[in-house]
DNA sequence: AGAATAGTGTCTATTAGACATTATCGT
DNA sequence: ACGATAATGTCTAATAGACACTATTCT
């Protein structure tokens, strides 16, 4: 089956970003407001065209920086910087009414940021709580996401939920130094469940290489001062942290 | 950031297939021999262009049927037919020296087939043992795979290895009816380890909905007749089957 | 003092891993 | 009889889940 350059139909290739963070105990995704048709005025995931000379991960990192100013450290060493990995590719004909667009979605896990509106670009990116975005039909308080972005977001959230089970990725939602309690609140926000603080503490501190004590303490959560940790070298969590049954 | 059709560079979009099976206790991948430059005479993964009017999964299923005659039942109910899921997308500039090609790789798990050469197309698809293909530099008995296909194959094999841990996907390597011992040999071939037959039996038969007894017995493995099962409705395996440490 | 959070310890039911034993075939 | 594989059972160490208790801060 020989290649013939005149043989292949023209495709546009884009990257879309599922950027997740935990703000005030809630899982939030980065959304932009569409300024034009189709889906004008609705929310969408940030994204854009892949350039002729860049690879897919670079395009995703560039779009992320343009929209939020966040720097990434794609796969591998965590912190400082957001975690980025490829999520999946969406290419149904008709997913964009204007032309054939194949979008390579990426998942970004970012530490909680104080700024209500992450710095930057046009369109006004903002953090939106995930539950409202995923509610069927875009129910209470949520406009429906444009294109097939609700599906992409759902896939990204499910990836994040399952990945923190068996990896140390939850630390990507935390600042460089964090407490056991702060890490637990990340799990609780991403999974939407309450975890036993004592069993959680035993689990994460008992896994070699998962947490590295950094020496100081903090009382930013109130109560007794808590030890500060940073993420350790271990990327795999074995045996995994089990997500409680629903 | 308005869309401008004249704005985006032209991409070719292809699907590549990592088709895995277990033959004679060995994990094998489907390979084709390249008939032209570049990489003429070397092995490559089967694949081809996505057509203008088909989605990505359909393109992968079509290519699979063209190369092997295998039918798929992409995601969801298993058997009869191969399991197909999207793997990842590879789009580095220069991964194909002739033009910018973004390839959406798919993973296919197929039951062991008796025919040495799966039916079909030009190029002569054949089953090749995975270890030789993945050996660094394409060592003993193995030509190096063309393009970045060694990387794609490695990613597909790793996906298969990790997915059978927590899902019932290993049954996709088996015929519609199979024994516990045959299923165990699939795990052993995919992971490359030996498992305890007694503990394995207890694990898989003790997980509700994983295996459904179908009534008959077989002696095709020799020894005492073994009960026949088919894959049950349960797709998740919780707690997971643990891959022994290396 | 009281509320809030951190950190450690205890008990139990479940399970993975190692291994013994019996059952039923083909040769 | 012998070798192969299937199927069930036993024992132990490790662990998840439930929960008691103490420690240290702020208001």
Automatic annotation (TrEMBL), chains A, B:
GO terms for molecular function: hydrolase activity. SUPFAM superfamilies: Nudix, Winged helix' DNA-binding domain. Residues 1-159 form the Nudix hydrolase domain. Keywords: Hydrolase. It holds the Pfam family WHD_NrtR. This is NUDIX domain-containing protein. Belongs to the Nudix hydrolase family. Transmembrane segments: none annotated. PANTHER family: ADP-RIBOSE PYROPHOSPHATASE (PTHR43736), SLR1690 PROTEIN (PTHR43736:SF4).
């Amino acid at each position: 089956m020989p290649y013939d350059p005149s043989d292949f139909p023209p495709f546009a290739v884009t990257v879309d970003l599922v950027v997740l963070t935990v703000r005030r105990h809630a899982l939030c995704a980065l959304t932009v407001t569409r300024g034009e048709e189709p889906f004008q005025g609705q929310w969408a995931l940030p994204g854009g065209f892949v350039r002729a000379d860049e690879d897919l991960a670079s395009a995703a990192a560039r779009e992320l920086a343009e929209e939020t100013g966040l720097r990434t450290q794609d796969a591998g060493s965590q912190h400082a910087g957001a975690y980025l990995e490829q999520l999946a590719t969406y290419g149904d004909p008709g997913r964009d009414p204007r032309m054939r667009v194949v979008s390579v979605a990426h998942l970004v896990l970012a530490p909680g940021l104080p700024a209500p509106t992450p710095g930057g670009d046009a369109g006004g990116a903002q953090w939106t709580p995930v539950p409202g975005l995923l509610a069927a039909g875009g129910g209470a308080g949520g406009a429906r996401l444009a294109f097939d972005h609700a599906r992409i977001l759902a896939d990204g959230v499910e990836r994040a939920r399952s990945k923190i089970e068996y990896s140390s990725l939850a630390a990507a939602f935390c600042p460089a130094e964090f407490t056991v309690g702060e890490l637990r609140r990340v799990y609780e926000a991403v999974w939407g469940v309450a975890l036993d603080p004592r069993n959680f503490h035993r689990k994460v501190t008992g896994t070699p290489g998962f947490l590295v004590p950094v020496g100081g303490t903090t009382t930013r959560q109130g109560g007794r001062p808590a030890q500060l940790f940073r993420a350790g070298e271990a990327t795999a969590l074995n045996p995994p942290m089990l997500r409680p049954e629903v």
